[in-house]
């Protein structure tokens, strides 16, 4: 079999693949959003008022399954950007009388 005939190397297979979004940890997302990590973490883990959008769930969890502290949660940046803007809009509409 020639290298050109190898089924995984053909052009149609590459064209049919979907684009994947890179995944980031929460400190990396805080850096990219321009927010302090402690503030973002408090918004994610803290209690939310009624009507406030919930934070996105992790897209992937890596690490050992036996110890929770060894796990790494990875998130999509686009989901966090959308959540951050929705949270800011909620906070702005809530302040107005």
Write the layout of secondary structure elements.
Blueprint: H1 11-15, E1 23-24, H2 26-33, H3 37-45, E2 60-62, E3 72-76, H4 77-95
Antiparallel strand pairs: 1-3, 2-3
Characterization of the model:
With 97 residues, the protein is mainly α. The chain has a single domain (18-95), classed as Multidrug-efflux Transporter Regulator, Chain: A, Domain 2 (Orthogonal Bundle), CATH 1.10.1660. The protein contains four helices and three strands, in the order H-E-H-H-E-E-H. It has helices at 11-15, 26-33, 37-45, 77-95, and strands at 23-24, 60-62, 72-76. A three-stranded antiparallel beta sheet has the order 1-3-2. The longest helix is centred in the last third of the chain and has 19 residues, at 77-95. The termini are far apart. The model has no long low-confidence stretch (mean pLDDT 83).
Quick take:
The protein is mainly alpha-helical and 97 residues long.
Multimeric organization: single chain
Low-confidence stretches: none
Largest pleated sheet = 3 strands, antiparallel
Mean pLDDT: 83
Please tell me the total number of domains.
1
Q: What sort of overall outline do the alpha carbons produce when their principal axes are compared?
A: extended
Class by alpha and beta content? mainly alpha
Give me the CATH fold name: Multidrug-efflux Transporter Regulator, Chain: A, Domain 2
The beta-strand count equals 3
The strands making up the biggest β-sheet line up spatially as 1-3-2
Question: What percent strand?
Answer: 5-15%
Roughly how many Å apart are the termini?
A: 74 Å
Mind telling me the CATH class?
Mainly Alpha
H and E order: HEHHEEH
Percent helix: 40-55%
Under the CATH scheme, which architecture would be assigned? Answer: Orthogonal Bundle
